[in-house]
Amino acid sequence: MESQKPQIQQPHALQTPSETTHHSPLSGFASNFAGKMKTNLGFRSKWAELNGAMGDLGTYIPIVLALTLADDLNLGTTLIFTGIYNIITGAIYGVPMPVQPMKAIAAVAISGTGFGVPEIMAAGIITGGVLFVLGITGLMQLVYKLIPLSVVRGIQLGQGLSFALTAVKYVRTVQNFSTSKSMGNRHWLGLDGLVLAIVCACFIVVVNGAGEEHRVETETNGDLGGDEERPRRKKSILRNIIFSLPSAFIIFLLGVILAFIRKPKIVNDIKFGPSSIEVVKISRHAWKEGFIKGAIPQLPLSILNSVVAVCKLSSDLFPGRDFSATSLSVTVGLMNVIGCWFGAMPSCHGAGGLAGQYKFGGRSGGCVALLGTAKLVLGLVLGTSLVKILNQFPVGVLGVLLLFAGIELAMASRDMNTKEESFVMLTCTAVSLVGSSAALGFVCGIVVHLLLRLRNFSKDQPLSTIWMDAP
Questions:
Q1: The pairing of beta strand 173-176 with beta strand 181-185
Q2: CA of 11: how far to CAs of 8, 16, 26, 471, in Å?
Q3: Whole-angstrom Cα distance, residue 209 to residue 145?
Q4: pLDDT tens digits, residue range 193-244?
Q5: Is the separation of the CB atoms in 58 and 399 below 8 Å?
Q6: Cα(67)–Cα(343) distance, rounded to whole angstroms?
Q7: Distances from the Cα of 357 to the Cα of 46, 56, 134, 209, 363, angstroms
Q8: How far apart are CA 136 and CA 120, in angstroms?
Q9: What is the pTM of this model?
Q10: Distance of CA 297 to CAs 13, 105, 126, 401, 449, Å?
């Protein structure tokens, strides 16, 4: 026993203060950092996270393809940078935080003449710079706290319904993404026909249901005999297998196969190797056009849908996780202030993409990190030649993925419990859809919110309750 005492006391004798302060901070930081990365990027379920990674492709692919065909956007550079964005945001937030195109800038570039790559990048840099400043100064967090929940829900509902309507258009009519126009009704049969889209939609409904969490069925009735229990157990196993299928991944893989079947010669058009990455030269005229036509309409949409709505939706989908409007604004700003100089598509977070990835099973940062890795590999291996494959991808299938992403986003508004809250939300939604402007819907929602508060205002209440309390 006496020989054991020095062995017990020896470690305490060796831990001098100088050695503790020399090793502990660095090793502690490394351990905490490694633990956080493992937690944020760890898969909750491999197939579910893979399936969730496909959730926002219904938005991403059509816009990127349209910009590449209509404005000569460098697809290889965009894939590389957005892939890096996906990996970083997944590691930071630990949830499937999406990286999507800035839609207002893309809409101007696709529909307008004289708005090319320099103007697109100028608009992205200006928008990103403003969001970065709003983030680091704390003003974005103030905006988030002041906007009533009913108005946020109105923006989400409007964006979700807009996605759903666009998805139906993709399914019903033939699309020309280079001109952003429809080209007549889609045929029922064919490799991109209505029947294919309907079958894919039904498959997703059977596998994913309405988006509720599926619990594996393990309960059996002990009172039943062996002969009666065996068929029920087989039925339960079959249901569990069906409900665990990665529906979005299967449908996307089917679309890739059909793309090669529709035009087998695209194999000859594929060139291996990354696209050249060059600094975009932006003239004074491009800065002016980018600010007026791109940044001004994009800023309200980015603030509302990319920061405020994403922050609220993230808290709804992942209770207990702290997502600040400041950090979201800073990450969106940095993505564009850096990437747009090299020709990468202006990008942001999006409530629709988050809802879509959650709908199909994404629950961790590993979901978007996996998607980012795939983008990075495709950008380095195939570069711009990948556009040849995407151009043959069945648009009806993309419409199906976009449809369910839009429905999932719109369903976030179901927590409006009073008639006044619903009134504000629906007013905001209606104006957003009819006016095609989330900013206009936001202004109308705020005005209606204030009018209702003034109408119900009592002399005994402090004046601050007119704004701060929800109707």
A1: antiparallel
A2: 7, 10, 20, 63
A3: 34
A4: 999 999 999 999 999 888 665 544 444 444 445 566 677 777 788 888 888 8
A5: yes
A6: 12
A7: 14, 6, 27, 15, 8
A8: 24
A9: 0.82
A10: 67, 8, 12, 27, 23
